[in-house]
Amino acid sequence: MALTLPAHPDPLADRIHDSGLLHELAHGLRGPFHYLLPERFDANLAAFRAALADAGVEGRVHYAKKANKASVYVERCAAAGAGVDVASLGELRDALGHGVRGEDLVVTGPAKSPELLLVAARQGALIAVDALDELERLPGLGGDRPVRVLLRRYPQDQPRSRFGLDDAQLHEALRRCAAAGDAVRMEGFSFHLSGYAIQPRADLAGELVELCLKARASGLRADRISIGGGFPVDYVAADAWDTFLAGQGPGHYHGEKAFAAGDFYPYHSPVAGADALRAILAASPGGSGPSLAERLRRAGVLLLLEPGRALLDRAGSSVFPVQGVKDRAGYGIVTVDGTSLSLSEQWFNSEYLPDPVLLRDRSQGTAGDEPTDRPYPACVGGASCLDSDLLTWRKIAFPARPRVGDLLVYPNTAGYQMDSNESPFHELPLPPKVVVDHHGDRPRWHLDR
User: Fold this and answer.
1) Among 144, 287, 314, 434, which lies 20 to 30 A Cα-Cα from 197?
2) Interaxial angle between packed helices 114-122 and 89-97, expressed in degrees from 0 to 180 and rounded to the nearest 10
């Protein structure tokens, strides 16, 4: 028996699916594509800003650009006066080219290239310093302006992390910043923390507030901290998620493939997105005393955020035309135009679990349709010659046997899924991105630039 895991209801996506637009786009683009909903990005950004305002905390939101390569989201940041988190020279140039000011950029990533450091310094971006040798190269790069830096703190509760400065290195970094005078402006601290738990982020943020107060005693500015991203997204309902985890096993997947529950992203999160930020601000660092929000206010510390996936929640989906269907004992194999490189989770020994939606090609008529009360279980393979190229190993309970020309829509893929690992394998073109908005009740579109 197939296990279902439907995404949360999405009336806006349903309107688009029912409009016939996606079949028109599939016909015109001649292959797979991603559609983007920038209005959802705007709403998510507004929700994060509201969480800061409601807590009485001064803060700034920087969109983690690595979560999606589309330009439209960066354009929305520029229009809204939001920042962008970049980690390469290409990302930095793209953000500047789409209207984001240099001072609204945060530059992260380990061991940054000399070219990236130079352009970041000249544009007035805030550079998260991850190592002492990186800090050593910064004085003078800004020309007449000081180089703006955050010092990234090594998370002691995650000893396997490769990011950040330990106690001794942090002490030396502070000494060097003070000695650099006007050449370097040390504005505060940051951290990179794996996972999605609330309390560890509050704990480490509280530690950074204390570090700011100590750094000020050395004459350093130290008036802001960055807690990075890691705000979970809630894709599916709690009961569906619990049922799936309790029931899933090798028999539910093509080739008896086995996944441990811990291999999966937590597709249900009871506290997600901007609500996760609210929970972090309300938590007491160390488990007692004033909340993080209160400590930030008392210390006059600005809070920086770098969400990626959470700003892209429900802001885009991926569409694959069906190229063929074959029957196996007890289930089918649907092959789509496209590859699993467009769903990144499959390349991390995991699976993108929200059910794809089957959109029938009504130009073929309804003759021969399978009864809708007789589900057709099938996995979904890509168009490459690799046996491992499956977009979905799980046997999805489709409402009918898919046909050539039908579309499979994978919901809510904008965050880290749709382009992190895409490659023109087999000389197949990369799926284009289509920006969809609405003029009254009618959807309209243009290609992302």
Assistant:
1) 314
2) 30
